[in-house]
Design a protein that fits this description.
- The protein is mostly beta strands.
- The chain has one domain.
- Helices cover 7% and strands 49% of the residues.
- It has two helices and 18 strands.
- The protein has an 18-stranded mixed β-sheet that branches.
């Protein structure tokens, strides 16, 4: 029983310095309509899927749908819904993996009802649901963290560390949904090549606070998110496990190309 409790590990999503907890996230960079074609790569930079990114505002809600299509007929789709006024609050998130029209894995969280579900059809059928302890304005999942980072950017660049909550799913023992504290910090200014271009971006680290003994059972990697530099800051790159912490690490680039290079640290420079 003790092992099971210690092995509650989280997806997607700091000790050492003081990290400020926030109760409501002020919207300093409102998001609007956008349409793009990112690329999904292995962590080594080989492109494996073509992406389509759609973002729009409807009924005072920000909607985001990101779709990745693989050559073998596999499709990943992430959907996110957030409210931007009076504060930034995520309301819905889902991730679905299918192949040739048949569902393989599905994860979803309704932040308003506090209900999260997981359905896995890979090796054995698993259907799990659970109640989440959601703190509105502090709890995020998936692409919701990128939107949150856009509004926290100035604070993080000044050296502040901020604590939020992340929705995740435990691979052991039953895929049960959980909420974990994450500490977000600025990791530095980097340069990276994608689609034949050399681009500059600020790297932000999303670090899950996991019990020390739990780390002995499964490694829980950080998620790294890059925003464009200089401002206005938009999405540039994302690296982390697909959904579960035991999933393969992947990379998503703003610009789709056959080869994506690792980010290289730059010396300090002026930022807007």
């Amino acid at each position: 029983m003790l092992v099971k409790k210690l092995a509650v590990l989280f997806s997607i999503f700091a000790a050492g310095f003081f990290a400020a907890s926030i109760f409501a996230l002020e919207v300093t960079e409102p998001a609007g309509a956008a349409h793009g074609y990112p690329g999904l790569c292995s962590i080594n930079g080989k492109k494996v899927a073509d992406g389509e990114f759609r973002q729009w505002v409807e009924n005072k809600r920000l909607h985001v749908i990101i779709t990745y299509k693989f050559p073998d007929g596999e499709v990943y789709e992430e959907q996110t819904q957030l409210r931007q006024q009076p504060e930034l609050i995520q309301e819905k998130w889902s991730w679905k993996e299918s192949k040739n029209g048949k569902s393989q894995r599905e994860f979803a969280a309704d932040f308003l009802s506090g209900i999260a579900t997981a359905h896995v059809r890979e090796e054995k059928n698993q259907d799990v649901s659970g109640k989440l302890n959601v703190e509105p304005g502090r709890t995020f999942a998936g692409f919701g963290f990128t939107i949150a980072l856009s509004n926290l950017r100035k604070r993080l660049l000044s050296g502040e560390q901020v604590q939020l909550k992340a929705v995740g799913f435990s691979p052991f023992p039953t895929l049960s949904p959980q909420v974990v504290t994450v500490t977000i910090s600025h990791g530095g200014l980097d340069r990276m090549r994608m689609s034949g271009r050399s681009l500059k971006g600020d790297r932000f680290i999303v670090h899950p606070e996991i019990f020390f003994l739990a780390k002995l059972f499964v490694d829980v990697p950080d998620t790294n998110i890059w925003l464009t530099n200089p401002a206005p800051a938009g999405f540039l790159r994302w690296e982390g496990p697909t959904v579960l912490p035991t999933d393969p690490l992947i990379r998503v680039d703003l610009l789709s190309g056959m080869k994506s290079d690792s980010a290289q640290s730059l010396e300090k420079s002026s930022r807007r």
